[in-house]
Amino acid sequence: MLGRAIALACGFCSLTLLAHAAEPTLLHVNTFPTARSLPFYVALDRGFFARHGLKVELEFTESSERQREGLAGGTADIVHSAVDNAVAMIDVAKLDIVIVSGGDSGTNEFYVQDTIKEFADIRGKAIVVDATNTAYALQARKILAQHGLRDGADYALDPAGNGPRRLAALFADKNNAGAILNLPYSLQAAAKGMRSLGRTTDMLGPYQAGGAFVRRAWARDNAATLENYLAAFVEALRWSLDPKNHAEAAAILVENLKLPQDMADKSLALMAEPGFGFARDAAFDMAGFKNVLALRAEVEGGAPSDPQRYIDLSYYNRAMTLVNK
Q1: Apex CA 30: angle with CA 27 and CA 33, to 5°?
Q2: Which residue, 20, 226, 255, 280, has most beta carbons within 10 Å?
Q3: pLDDT tens digits for 241-261?
Q4: Are residues 157 and 253 in the same domain?
Q5: Are 160 and 166 in contact (CB under 8 A)?
Q6: Distance separating alpha carbons of residues 101 and 281, to the nearest angstrom
Q7: CB 277 within 8 A of CB 268
């Protein structure tokens, strides 16, 4: 009887240890609330994160400034944002941050009030941005400079925050002449009579917009977790862009972003457009990133740095071996 009790006890201990080992790893992920949030919704709802042993708590940021603070302070483990924010954290804030994957080209368009017929009409007004010294604000400043308009002299920058906040600022004040908007906010602006003066990729060339970046020390200490996360994200992205899942993917956008059906369908089609929406498998676009660095150097001053200083794609490359083919 004693031997049987010991055996049963050992069996119970083994089951307890197995159950404990199977507990998912908790990750705090921060991103912007846009149509490009679709893979996150899919990965959570369809179990892609869970199948890779992860429990992801997703937070949407109100601005890139808050997002950068969260990553620097450790309240976010992984952030998805314009990778120029990572460059700013490294170059300006002197933080040890590293970009670990690509993601998308931004789906960005320069939208303006219906009273603005051309870029020259922006003179004396404001441009709404997220933060004034990173990412799409730099794109706006470069585009306006191409049309002879200087920041601080011919127009002002209004740092309103994320896409919903920029759109709200445009609706609230006609003196806010325009903003660079992505999906679905560009479509919502168009529905209210605003006009597009063009896609930023058409005006500035390829651009590595969205990507994932982390604290470098965290990546080293949590390599397997990061690789499983990136694999799960790629699987969810593949599902999101698979034409046979279009109806379900559009329904996810309708539910989570409260979009009309036609706007969800159009957002999904545009996000699948090569060179404008998602990159295949969230691959990193080196040519686009070199343009990011060149743009930052031109607008902010200085010379472009070596791209390798900011990236470590080894985690992504190992993640791709884990992707469910």
Answers
A1: 135
A2: 226
A3: 999 999 999 999 999 999 999
A4: no
A5: yes
A6: 10
A7: no
CATH number at residue 172: 3.40.190.10
d(CA 22, CA 34): 33
Q: Decide if pLDDT at 49 tops 60.
A: yes
- pLDDT for 166 beyond 90: yes
302 lies in a domain? yes
Q: How many CB atoms lie within 10 A of CB 269?
A: 12
Distance CA(170)–CA(283), nearest Å, equals 33
The reported pLDDT for the residue numbered 248 is 98
Strand partners, 26: 55
Tell whether 162 and 100 lie within a shared domain.
Answer: no
On whether both 199 and 224 belong to a single domain, the answer is no
Phi-psi region of 313 (alpha: psi -120 to 50; beta: other; left: phi over 0): alpha
Query: What number of CA atoms fall less than 13 Å from residue 174's CA on the CB side?
Result: 6
Structural domains of the chain, count = 2
Query: What's the length of the chain?
Result: 325
Q: Are residues 218 and 311 in the same domain?
A: yes
State which residues form the domain around 120.
109-204
The 8-class DSSP code of residue 183 comes to T
Same domain, yes or no, for 70 and 147?
Answer: no
DSSP H helices, 152-194, are 163-172, 185-191
Three-class SS of residue 154?
Answer: coil
With both helix axes pointing from N to C terminus, report the angle between 64-73 and 84-91 in degrees, rounded to the nearest 10. 60
DSSP notation for 268-284: HHHHTSTTTSBPGGG--
12 in a structural domain: no
Please name which of 192, 105, 157 lies closest in space to residue 299, comparing C-alpha atoms. 157
